[in-house]
Amino acid sequence: MIALIAIIILPLTVLALPDLLLDKIYQKTALYFKIFKKLFEKLSGGGDLVTAQDLVTTLATLEASSIIKLKTGPMELPRYKFYTGIIDQMIVNAREYGCSIKQGVKTVRHAVAKDHQFERKIIKEHTGGFAQFLIITIISWSFFMSVKNIMSISISMSSLITIITLQTGGLFLYIYLSKLIKLSTFKGDAEYLNSIYILKSLIGTGLPIQSVINLSKVIDTINMTGEKFKHINTRITIMLERVQKTGTPIAEELGEIVEEVWFIHNLSFENFIKKTVILKFLIVAGFYLTSYFLFLIELFGNIM
Fold first, then answer.
1. For the segment 24-55, what is each residue's pLDDT rounded down to a tens digit?
2. Position 123 in a domain
3. Number of structural domains, the chain?
4. Can you give the residue range of the structural domain that contains 236?
5. pLDDT for 55-91, tens place per residue?
6. How far is CA 100 from CA 56, 198, 299, in A?
7. Percent of the residues in the chain that have a pLDDT greater than 70, as a whole number
8. According to DSSP H, which parts of the chain are helical?
9. CA dist 296 to 15, 83, 129, 149, 228, Å?
10. Which helix (H) or strand (E) holds 47?
């Protein structure tokens, strides 16, 4: 009786295990760890972490010698999310209009470094989820095989199919929903940041303000974004109307707006991690624990 109670409680304790302990347990299955980690880096929409590190290093070099690099022709940059596109456009603007990109490169470099930290947290959450899925699956099938051999109890084919469907379905649903949540959480961020940086890099080049606005496509971006950037949209609209009427310098205010946009972007990362933790719990409870309890129901049904 005590053994049965222990077996029932054991999978529940998996949910309470610290992520650090789960990581250590999961690392013992190194091959699966690498496969699942690589799978999530590709399918969950997260950029390659090595590429992020390479981009940070390259931007530091570009920041230190931007004038030399711009004069010597094209520069191959590591492709990481939308950040590389921002730098590409800044370099094009610098070559065509003579605007400085040094401060912009520095800001993007810091942003990529921060993004890299968040992506590592996301991968850690995914790894913890996979560890929980794997542990409960191993417990379920080990328990089933042990009981089958000791007590000569069989489980119906329909129940086995249901259990396998729950366990595999939970995995793929987790992958799909993680990607879906990430896309919705960061929707519009890339376009918004790109337009703001182009606008910022073109200010002070001597181009007419209307040409600057048109080249940055900031008006189109404002019209596409929703509630997340609503208060910033209002501020940008008022700022652009003012500069068109009075010619008041807006470089300092644009810098403040860039900081605010990054703040919102970072909040989106934190929000995504919270959603991932909730999703992981729901998948474990709804799919993997359910499949385990189906084993128990079949076991007690055969015993009774």
1. 555 555 555 555 556 555 554 445 667 777 88
2. no
3. 1
4. 189-264
5. 887 777 776 665 545 555 556 788 888 788 888 877 8
6. 19, 12, 72
7. 77
8. 2-14, 19-27, 30-43, 49-64, 66-71, 83-97, 102-151, 157-185, 189-202, 209-216, 218-224, 230-246, 251-283, 289-303
9. 19, 51, 23, 16, 47
10. none
